[in-house]
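Study this:
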Amino acid sequence: MGMHHGVLVADLPWPKLYAELQHQAADFRDLGPLAPNEPLEPEARDDGFLLIGGELEGRAYLLDSSFLLSGMAPDLIADIAATDRTLVAACLAETVSGIFALVTARGPEVLRHHFNSHTELTRAYDRGEPMPTEGRLPLEDLDGIGLLAALEQLGFAVSGWERGGSHRKILFSADRLPQSGELAAAVASHQASFAIPEGRQPSEVVTLERRDGGFDITKSPQLRRFGKVVSRPAARD
């Protein structure tokens, strides 16, 4: 039904990444481990966002229902990588609204930063060299296949952690957000330069009804095979 969450990974033990997140945005509460057979389903709740965090083979993983820790605050990724002199990456897809992001950093160096919103931008924001996986698996895939492949290229097997790692439930109130910096400013400048004028959504952006239920937005003709086009923008004057 499309990807509707973010993923944050780091070459750090889970307790260390959790401590860094508490330092950057302190409003977290550890609700304990998942029960046996309890699904890994991050979700928005009335009291905040339920996240799923944990570890596999000394590397930390976080499923982020808020999107705020996995790409919408890109400087958080860069700050943790620089502080701990390690590899940190994050990605997100909110395919109902056509938003995609990837941020990767090693130590003080930002390796790759991609951001796009199909309903807001005429051109995606890109910084750094494309990941080796992008030629065959584009980042903007309705089910997040390209984004997760990019993380796996860096050594983070999200599906492996989901099957065999440790998992804890974390409540994030989002009352205090990570600070914005250079990366967020660059995206904001790009958004100002390449914003779709109000009422002028491009005709290639369509709403798909997915075969397995739900709806997603895409402007890629190749991705329309994932469902049936049920809505198109109104014709321009």
